[in-house]
Amino acid sequence: MPSVALRTEPDAVRNMAAMTGKLGLDTAPAAWPTGVSLLAQVIASCQRCEAGEVCADWLARAPKTIELPPAFCPNAYELKRANGQ
């Protein structure tokens, strides 16, 4: 029986879900200022981000709720905007 290798690198989808959850953001496209287009851009940017491990570590240490995303996040501006800031 072949063994299945576990993925050890941070998962962008998990990071994105955790970040939006801590910010209290709804990920329904209608909740975003420009709808699905902006949400799709934010997701794509997260998937291309080179700071996945840093992000996962930051999210693990962050409080349950936050007001602002970390400065290293390539989506910081858009996440703040979606959060009304």
Summarize the structure.
The chain is mostly helical.
Approximately what portion of the residues adopt beta-strand conformation? under 5%
- Contiguous low-pLDDT stretches (5 residues minimum) are none
Q: Secondary-structure element order, as H and E? A: HHHH
Structural class: mainly alpha
Q: What value does the Rg take, in angstroms?
A: 14 Å
Largest sheet geometry: none
Measured as a percent range, the helix fraction is 40-55%
Q: Quick check: average pLDDT?
A: 84
Could you say which overall geometry the principal axes of the C-alpha atoms support?
Answer: globular
Distance between the termini: 53 Å
Structurally, the number of domains stands at: 1
Describe the structure.
By secondary structure, the protein is mainly alpha-helical. It has one domain (12-24, 32-82). Helices cover 49% and strands 0% of the residues. The chain contains four helices and no strands. The chain has helices at 12-23, 36-48, 52-61, 76-82. Helix 1 (12-23) packs across helix 2 (36-48) and helix 1 packs parallel to helix 3 (52-61). It is globular and about 30 Å long. The N and C termini lie far apart (53 Å).
